[in-house]
Amino acid sequence: MELFRRALAAGLLFTAVTTVHADEGMWLFNNPPLKHLKEKHGFSPDAAWLEHVQKSSVRFNSGGSGSFVSPNGLVMTNHHVAADALQKMSTPQKNYLRDGFYATKQADEVKCLDLELNVLQSIEVVTDRVNAAIKPDMSTADAALARRKVIAEIENESKEKTGLRSNVTTLFQGGEYHLYRFKQYTDVRLVFAPEEAIAFYGGDPDNFEFPRYDLDMCFFRAYENDKPVKPEHYLKWSANGAAENELIFVSGHPGRTNRLNTVAELEYLRDRQYPMLMARLNRLEVLYSSWGARSAENARRVRDDLFSVQNSRKARKGGLAGLLDPAIMGRKMAEEKALRAAVAADPKLKDAVDAWDRIAKAVEKQKTLAKESNLLEGGAAFNSQLFGIARTLLRAAAERPKPNGERLPEFRESGLSSLTFQLFSPEPIHDDLEQLKLADALTYAAEQMGADHPVVQKLLAGKSPRDRAAEVILGTKVKDVEFRKKLWEGGQAAVDASSDPMIALAKSIDSEARSLRKTSESEVSEVKQQAYAQIAKAKYAVQGASTYPDATFTLRLAFGLVKGYEEDGKAVPAFTDYAGLYARCKSQENRPPFELPERWFERKTRLDLKTPYNFVATADIIGGNSGSPVINKAGEVVGLIFDGNIQSLVLDFVFDEKQARAVSVDSRGMIEALRKVYDAGPLADELSGKK
Amino acid sequence: MELFRRALAAGLLFTAVTTVHADEGMWLFNNPPLKHLKEKHGFSPDAAWLEHVQKSSVRFNSGGSGSFVSPNGLVMTNHHVAADALQKMSTPQKNYLRDGFYATKQADEVKCLDLELNVLQSIEVVTDRVNAAIKPDMSTADAALARRKVIAEIENESKEKTGLRSNVTTLFQGGEYHLYRFKQYTDVRLVFAPEEAIAFYGGDPDNFEFPRYDLDMCFFRAYENDKPVKPEHYLKWSANGAAENELIFVSGHPGRTNRLNTVAELEYLRDRQYPMLMARLNRLEVLYSSWGARSAENARRVRDDLFSVQNSRKARKGGLAGLLDPAIMGRKMAEEKALRAAVAADPKLKDAVDAWDRIAKAVEKQKTLAKESNLLEGGAAFNSQLFGIARTLLRAAAERPKPNGERLPEFRESGLSSLTFQLFSPEPIHDDLEQLKLADALTYAAEQMGADHPVVQKLLAGKSPRDRAAEVILGTKVKDVEFRKKLWEGGQAAVDASSDPMIALAKSIDSEARSLRKTSESEVSEVKQQAYAQIAKAKYAVQGASTYPDATFTLRLAFGLVKGYEEDGKAVPAFTDYAGLYARCKSQENRPPFELPERWFERKTRLDLKTPYNFVATADIIGGNSGSPVINKAGEVVGLIFDGNIQSLVLDFVFDEKQARAVSVDSRGMIEALRKVYDAGPLADELSGKK
Predict the structure, then answer these.
(1) What is the pLDDT of residue B8?
(2) pLDDT value, residue A7
(3) Nearest CA to A252 among A622, A625, A547, A558?
(4) pLDDT given for residue B22 in this prediction
(5) Chain A interface disruption, residue of B1, B282, B453, most A CBs within 10 A
(6) I want to staple B242 with a disulfide (CB 3.0 to 4.6 A). Which of A186, A662, B276, B638 is the partner?
(7) How far apart are CA A54 and CA A251, in angstroms?
(8) Domain residue spans in chain B?
């Protein structure tokens, strides 16, 4: 209550229920903030501008963003978005992730093992058709099934009609449904990567910090029929980069935000989900880093897992700090109270009156399911790639014979080509790391549920976690891609006949896991989706203004100004330069993770040290936006998003443009490094259109 | 049940209830295993031998063991036991912990800020007197108070009579009470420490591993009246060290084991306490290591905290793995079942029949208290030295005016001199690290109890954890030793009048914290103590044999053979040598934590690379034994305990001599390094008695 009054006093309520004035938002390409852009920035992107940017944007299915940046299919992204692919193509002898790579000619470009890129071709609103399938008298279980069916139908129709990957996306937590169609690229080759030491300069300590000095870039080339793709759209390079206070756009795929969540959901995140997640991330960080420290080869094998965990840990820690900040939660409470009051006052909105209470009730149910769901269906009890493969094979056998609309969503026809591309990937899987992870995960399950719990007893089969992990990891054949294909093709009969220990482990708890998922779907997700749909409608009726949905790893347009900020009373300038990089290295005595690759010392005198290197802007981004191009009004690349500053970590819940900033590599800094440090003139020429 | 049958089948039950045949045990000096030593090893240490070893042994109050090793008060321990003292005397300019130190003459020896050493002078059994104070019709709350009173009385009488620090120790979980009298030394000076990089060679990855290559030694000198102590007893040095299969003894202070715990308690440890502790250790490890990585000075400030956490994490992880090993838990269940059957069959033991059930009931109560107790009384919600100081001052004001027997035990007269020695320590306390720790601890409290919990609201006082931590850390004056003294001397009136924010924070939750402690004492500890006393009696009646109590950080005598073991089918030899050190460094490419200090390369050719360096023995030790001398039958130093191998981590619960080993630095390796690498001939001479 105190919080609520403070928020009121601060006038936050007023801004909350009126139109957005800040440069806020992760906007849908089919509903861009044209009015705001025109009124505030005097810029009106037309349909061609939007289509060009949309079709130049690339989604990395491994989790991140990118863009076409040459007529010959060159794709730009971050080194850390590329890390998954770099790790998979590496060996103890050739470490692409750590040491970098440059293909001086196309024939030297290295094919990725399982990298899939998607380019959004069109968006179609299908909300009415989805909602029409849900009848008012349906139970939530029936409604969930009906929803699944109609979505599968829409996707399948689209796929058959267009040949494009077609996915229906839930937006506004259930308020709208849009059909997205993508072109898929699965032959993607590495062109250039810098060394990890400069790409991720400052490592975990500098992650989410600014000033910053990271060359977090990587270039791939998309191929079709063994030839470079000639994309219909690609972004041109800006020779001049961006200037302070210039308007810039970010086109990319923010992964997840929770801004439209009710207070009950936020409290759940704050008191349960984040603490549970943080505890697991801390556990995995210690597990991976202590194992990695044992040898250089261990460090190589676990590098990408460790980075993901550290990155999430730091991001979530910032998010949790936001949820524990009375100013933020007070604002959320004030906004919700105001909206509920407006809804209560309008008889036309009566359907929505108890929507918040229904969500709160669903959250109570969620609390009772969370731990076991997370372990058994979420897979925290089986932190193992081989387990994931085994479960996919097991479930595919059961799901694929079903009518498309009745399958678990991941086995819908619309997703099968991407699924099998991953499932049959020849990526290296290391027994020792798998054993480490699975033994720890089984221990975690025993800790969470109690060692005497019947499910845990079943998982452990009378052995210690370590012995059990060794047994199934060393015994399974699912590490063999041919074996996977046999089980996939052989279906239920092949799976039934298999005595593979990992398949058996997945089988042993599948009914529990599926049942948790089903309960969660009908008693939590479906209840929430219906209630949020009503809230979304009510919000539209009350606030009138056009708005944007929470992030869902679909393409969004953000925008803002290149702009520094103030921190602890000191001005933080918008740009850093190469001189700053060398200064930071010196002040940290060149010790890891502040150590520069040798070539950066050798080539120092060649560099123009005043070249802009990294910069910040107010654009509204979040994890998933990594690798997004930063473009100017002319649609030219002026930078490459790779991070947010520490103050941006609350963007999960609220937008802020006072201190929160998106962090990018400057287009000029990239070219300077390519030419002077990496002798990659041809690549720089291709980017600059000089070829 | 399956477990139980397996254990029976393996014949474990038989060995469990008969006399100990292995070289097991952390024996009391007033009840040494004379019969076993004579029968198995043909050696009969006499009273003089025992007294000599006892009085040469030194307890480090900061947590560890040591011994007098020269007639001039030289004290030997581990570098990692000394780390707390080394850290406190260090500055950004002079890093004793990292860089080591050697005082070539006594005048250069550096006084520790707050290191207290204790030497055990005598043991008196006071079980009957303690038990006589407990009347059968007393409530457990009254019994707990009566126990406290009689213990205070005994301690006070002893202190007045002898002038020695006098502590009554609970042994056999409540089966016996012994009065220990110690000589205290508080003027302790640093003589020699090697660099951390060689003392803790291999760092966390090699911690608890073998083969091993650590020069984990440190030498202090005890002073009285500004002159080196001439101890009545000290250990002579063995020129020849120990040989394979030689009988050796370890005299030191094992901290804690849980071997006599009932199965209900072990299950509680396995399913609740260890998981809770591990989660917190993982959290702190990530917190400290990520903060330490930000700069060299951060790393220096947090070094000792980080080491403690990593060390505990690795030890507890091994312990938990033991509890999750069906073979170990099966053995425990079998032993308990057999003892209960024997008790049930003997009418004389009827008092003990339901002792196990009473413990199980107390454990159920403990479950309901654990989380909040750990946070509020255990201090997990206030991970801050300054908070600890504030709470001590607050409670001292309330406790000291009370009759001695009614005080909280830590404020008994018998402990006040040690308490104030610590409380008024001028050790450096860093605001930045304190803020980091307290903000995290307040976040942890919010996560554990929910941010809306009234206690959490009280702790946070309407602020975010970060802001609240900054407010109290930057605002408190308890960092000033003179201020502490004023509050200590001013008592309740001074504390009441103080508006210090840290004192206020401690005050704000003191009634909750004390109440949790009181409930825990009367409904958990006292119930257990009474039940364990009955089990101990029953056990004695049934098994007859003399035995040893669980470890309690009191002086114990362990013994065993210098002996290698087999691991994954390969023989692990008992000794490593200096050649092995250089080989390990090479195979790890000299990268941290396998990097050798420069002088080790410079002096390599001087060293006899065949000198024994580290070795293993079967002696029964556990954490707290670090720094214990390893001595031969002649009472000479042949080594210095510094670790156990990974297989020894289950020793918390069961002894094993198949693979579990104590790891030591060899006396010959120490002398070789002192003379050839550190030019510390005079110190080597003093140790060798050549002076």
Answers:
(1) 35
(2) 34
(3) A625
(4) 87
(5) B282
(6) B638
(7) 7
(8) 1-40, 41-258+563-688, 382-508
End-to-end CA separation in angstroms for chain A: 64
Q: Do B321 and A275 touch (CB under 8 A)?
A: no
* A511 burial via Cβ count (<10 Å: 0-12, 13-18, 19+): exposed
The token pair that represents A248 in the structure block: 């810039």
CB contact under 8 A, A205 and B286: no
* Three-state DSSP state, A681: helix
Closest residue of chain B to A324, computed from CA coordinates: B464
From the candidates A290, A300, A363, which should be mutated to test the interface with B, based on the most B CB atoms within 10 A? A290
Q: Which of A271, A293, A462 sits opposite B451 (nearest CB)?
A: A271
Helix and strand numbers, DSSP H then E, in chain B? 28, 22
Give the alpha-carbon dihedral of A200, A204, A209, A213, to 10 degrees.
-20
CA-only gyration radius of chain A, Å: 25
- Give the Å distances, CA to CA, from A449 to A388, A459, B101, B592: 21, 12, 50, 38
Report the C-alpha dihedral over residues A666, A671, A674, A680, rounded to 10 degrees. Answer: 150
CATH number among 3.40.50.2300, 3.30.160.100, 1.10.10.60, 2.40.10.120, domain B41-258+563-688 = 2.40.10.120
Q: Does A278 sit within 8 Å of B279, measured CB to CB?
A: no
In this complex, do B296 and A324 lie within 8 Å of one another by their Cβ atoms? Answer: no
Could you give phi then psi for residue B331, rounded to 5 degrees? -65, -40
Under an 8 A CB cutoff, do A464 and B282 touch? no
Sign of CA dihedral B38, B41, B44, B49: negative
Residue A241 in contact with partner chain B when CB distance is under 8 A:
no
For the stretch B583-609, pLDDT in tens is: 999 999 999 999 999 999 999 999 999
pLDDT tens profile A155-180: 999 999 999 999 999 999 899 999 99
DSSP letter assigned to residue A678: S
Scanning A345-382, the segments in alpha helix (DSSP H) are: 355-372
Take residue B320 and report the two structure tokens written for it. 């938990």
CA triple B272-B276-B277, angle to 5 deg? 120
State the CB neighbour count (10 A cutoff) for residue B571: 9
Cβ-defined contact of B464 to A321 (cutoff 8 Å): yes
Residues of A in contact with B270 (CB under 8 A): 446, 451
Per-chain mean pLDDT for chain A:
95
The answer to whether the CB atoms of A295 and B320 lie below 8 A apart is: no
Asked if the peptide bond before residue A211 counts as cis, ω within 30 degrees of 0, the response is yes
CB contact under 8 A, A275 and B447: yes
- Strand ranges inside A22-116, DSSP E: 27-28, 57-60, 64-68, 74-77, 101-102, 110-111
Does B589 contact chain A (CB < 8 Å)? yes
**Nearest alpha carbon to residue A216 among A580, A641, A603, A577:** A641
Please give the C-alpha separations between residue B454 and each of A148, A589, B520, in angstroms, as whole numbers.
Answer: 43, 47, 21
Which residues lie closer than 8 Å to A454 by C-beta, 6 or more apart?
none
> Which of residues 164 through 223 in chain A touch B, CB cutoff 8 A?
203-205
> What's the pTM?
0.95
The verdict on a CB contact (< 8 Å) between B464 and A285 is no
Which tokens in the block code for residue B559?
Answer: 């013994």
Confidence band for B545, pLDDT divided at 50, 70 and 90: low
For residue A274, which residues of chain B lie inside 8 Å, CB to CB? 447
Facing B446 at nearest CB: one of A283, A285, A324: A324
The answer for A 304-323 residues in CB contact with B (under 8 A) is 310, 313-314, 320-321, 323
How are the residues of chain B apportioned to helix, strand and coil, as percentages rounded to the nearest 5?
A: 55, 15, 30
Contacts of B443 in chain A (CB under 8 A): 320-321, 324
